[in-house]
Amino acid sequence: MKKLNISFGIIGVLIVLAFWFGSSMYQKVPAGYVGVATLFGEVKKEPFEEGLHVPVNPFYEWYFYDVRQKSHLEEANVPSQDQLQTKIQVSVQFRLQGENAPKILQETGQAQDVLIVHIVPKLRSLMREQGKTIRRAEDFFLEETQQNMQTSLLEGLKDYLGSKGVSVEAVLIRDISLPPFIIKAIESKKEREQEVEKQKAELERFTTEQQQKVELAKAESEAAKEQALKKRLLADAQAYEIEKINTAIGDNPNYVKLQALEALKAISKDPASKIYFMDGNSPSPLPLMNIGSK
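The chain above was modelled as a monomer; its predicted structure follows.
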């Protein structure tokens, strides 16, 4: 009986060992990851791509690295040449190089260590260096400044992180927050500029109205001058006509006599006319007085 119990115990141990060794003879690497194996602390030089790997050494210890693209958002206070600190928020798009995963494990550690040890410190350092090239804090809002900063940060991170097993694909400035008193000063400046533009527009409107009034006054003056000229020409014509008539009358006494006879003829038709006294010495029979009565 005792031997039988020992036999069952040995069989049980063998089954456990067989199960353990059997389950350790293969390894599945998730999609988007690479696996790195170590054997008694020694890092295997070749990474394991995603998928099922059979057979593998059951004594391997496994580490997995996500090699898909990631984005890290970093915020730092960046001093400019005027010694003012501007809060700048930057995002870095990167991915771990799968072929260099064993090197990352050996030199840096696991995936999260890459961010802590390399990416964040280098990014902050580069941001501070870039701030030293900016003369004033408000210059961070200039499009040219932001474009140059993004380019410099991208190149700096690529040069540094490439040898660390990290590929940097983009650096983007997400937000810029100036010191509060600078923001207030900028807002006040904008308000003053808007007020100046408003006053300028009002002045232009007033100037336009005055020019219109001047043009209207000129038009009215020209019209008045033209009307006065017409009246003067008409008066001159009438005076010329009268002068010609007087000259003609003076040169023709018979015309005066004829006009006098016409006047007497018209007077004779008046029923109130009775007696007329005529100046006998006059060359023409002009009426002097009407003394008629009923």
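Residues 187-218 form one domain.
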